[in-house]
Amino acid sequence: MGRRIRRREFLKEGGKAGLGLFALAQLGGATLGLAQEAAAGGAERLTLFVWSGLNLPTVAHEVARFYMQNNPGVTIEVLEGQNFEVYPKMVSARKLTPDRPLVHFGYSNTQFTYQGDIDDMWESLDLRNIPNAANVADAYKRPENRGIGFSIAPVGLIYNPNFVREPPTSWADMWHPRFRGKVTSIKYAWYTNGLVIAARLNGGSERNIDPGFRLWAERANQFVAFANSNVEVRDLIVRGDAHIAAMFGGNALTWKEQGAPIEFVIPREGTIAFPLFLVVVKGVSAQQKRIAEGVINLILSERWLARWAALTYFVPTSTKVVVPPSLRGLAMYSPQETARAIQFDWATIARNETAWRERWDKEVVARMGR
Amino acid sequence: MAQAAIPQIVARRGGWRAALRRYAHVPLLTPAVGLTVAVFWVCMAVLVVMSVYPFLAAGTPRLTLAAWQRLLGDPYYWGVVGTTLRLAFVVTALALALGYPAAYAISKIQRPGWALAAYVVLFAPILVSVVVRTYGWLLLLSNTGVVNYLLRAAGLVREPIPLIFNETGIIIAMVHILLPFMVFPILSVVGQVGGDLKEAAMDLGANRWVTFRRVTLPLTAPGVISGCQIVFTLTISAFVTPFLMGGGRVQILSGLIYRDMEAVNLGFASVVALVLLALAVVILAASNVLARRAYRRAEVERA
After folding, report:
1. Domain residue ranges in chain B
2. A22 Cβ under 8 Å from any chain B Cβ
3. Mean residue pLDDT across chain A
4. Which of A84, A120, A225 sits opposite B247 (nearest CB)?
5. Model confidence over A236-273: pLDDT tens digits?
6. Do A167 and A259 reside in the same domain of the chain?
7. What is the C-alpha to C-alpha distance for residues B91 and B81, in angstroms, rounded to an integer?
8. Chain A: closest CA distance from residue B264 (Å)
């Protein structure tokens, strides 16, 4: 009799625990955090997020390995992916298991860094633990040190020289009739789909975005298609389905190096600055935060930033970094280009993310093909 | 006394055995049902909760029907529902139009080798990832692809025909991807139709068309309805192929879910997911009524 009761209780409690865990996993992949803690066996185990593709994850892997060699009690797992895939899971995990973040720290693009401010996702960094932060230009330090800018990805225009005889020279070429039906972009990437730049060049701004929507509603057929990733944008350009797109200079130069028929130009108005940040996710323990700050300090060191620049073509924010000679001749590395780069109001963009997505679908996408 | 007890024991044993026999399938069913309950119903419950308690990373959510009002009160979203349904119906109809003759023809193949070859040709694409197959279609149908090249080389068109980044591209790729799911259920029924019924119909003066319409088609209707249900439900919820072939231009419900999930607008994404589910359930329920009638009719015809 007693055995029957115990078994029932066991099944009941086990069932509850199983269902609970399952719900967590469904919502945010939070079981990864649980597994990490269980496997750690007392030692610290952290997950470092980094973007996948091209040479973007290389430095993260190298730095993690270097840190672990010098700190035997620490394990750093590098999780590769895209911010747009992982961020919603990070938010879910923060809500469901606040002291067990899915990702402890990592790389974050501008869009999601500011979105994280709204969602209260980021820890304030203790810059005393990150001495290399002193070399970062002030423009790339964040309010309350909720992350720190380590690099800039300048956005310019790419085109396929097999199809375009006269290269684009201005952001306005995105909506010029000569490229009707030949423009592409990631659908809701406000730094490449032309919405914000169109608003700015037509009397508007991030806070007055209507001129941008108005222009693109009239010129919706400039777009041939929208992509879901930078690689898809590249494929559309290479195949000739699209002829021009806004794109990170780093990606464009890497693809060109790999043999893709792609050229990169800086529009006469300048590049769009797309800062890249390192952030620590709220919910980490004090010890984990110190470790994360130690790794961030390494990433910000001259050695690893120079390596990052050489691998990715992205511009470091540190004033001390000496970029490799092969990069010095590139226009986007010149201090003048960096200084005149167009700075978007990312906080306003993040606040309007959901509303702009809906408007983009209703006012622009719905008019394509008409 | 002892003699009276014997029938009772036998009866009890009989009852026990009968009960065992009656519920013998339960252990077999339990893993599948358990998995379905865990994966499907728990997720559905979470979606229902999130649709009225918007998921916020910071702050406490309050009960609101705003997401439901936003979807149901906006004609734009009704248009998206319309596009989703239209695509699903067209893909299902075309898959049926192509799949029925294919299944019929395969059932008529006498030589085992030829039958095997037909199976391989028709079903082998299932072994290849949907993404790979969709990319294949992109390469074939793009402006610089093989199809447009051949059309231009043959002098049939001057400018490339837009075959991708529109509903046409989605339909072509979806029909190709889902055709085996239409053929297989029909094939399993067509093979059971006895030749004697058709012979009897023809002996009674029916021509081939009338025989097909009055005998073969009613008898194979259960397979047709099953195939249509499978293809319809897979199309209505498809994401990868419509997204790649539609180039983000064709707005469908699964695309809305993705859009709002990405923006961590989980309340609205949940509402769209539930509406998608409701549409599938309503249409499947309606087709089930048809299926039941078809089964009954088929039984009568067979009898």
Report:
1. 1-52, 63-302
2. yes
3. 87
4. A225
5. 999 899 999 999 999 999 999 999 999 999 999 999 99
6. yes
7. 16
8. 6
Claim to verify: residue A129 and residue A246 sit in the same structural domain? no
A369: contact with B, CB 8 A cutoff:
yes
Q: Which residues contact A183 (CB under 8 A, 6 or more apart)?
A: A174, A175, A194, A222, A223, A224, A242, A243, A244, A245
What ipTM was predicted for this assembly? 0.80
Asked whether the predicted pLDDT for residue A5 surpasses 70, the reply is: no
B24 vs A21, more confident: B24
Homologous superfamily (CATH) of B63-302 is MetI-like (1.10.3720.10)
Tokens representing A190? 């406000």
Percent of chain A predicted with pLDDT > 90: 70
Per the CB < 8 A criterion, the answer to whether B134 and B242 are in contact is no
Shared domain check, A348 and A222: yes
Let me know: does A160 contact A259? Beta carbons within 8 Å: no
The answer on A170 and A128 residing in a single domain is no
Q: Are residues A101 and A133 in the same domain?
A: yes
Asked whether the beta carbons of A30 and A20 are under 8 A apart, the reply is: no
A139-196 pLDDT, tens digit per residue, is: 899 999 999 999 999 999 999 999 999 999 999 999 999 999 999 999 999 999 999 9
Between chain A and chain B, how many beta carbons pairs sit less than 8 Å apart?
88
Best A238, A362, A363, A367 member to test B by mutation, with max B CBs in 10 Å, is: A362
Interface contact A121-B57, CB threshold 8 A: yes
Q: What does the CA dihedral A184, A189, A195, A198 come to, rounded to 10 degrees?
A: -80
Residue A141 near chain B (CB below 8 Å): no
Q: Same domain, yes or no, for A117 and A32?
A: yes
Interface test with chain A among B46, B78, B165, by most A beta carbons within 10 Å: B165
Asked if B144 and A240 come within 8 Å (Cβ–Cβ), the reply is yes
Structural domain of A78? 28-153+274-333
pTM of the model: 0.82
Q: Are residues A202 and A104 in the same domain?
A: no
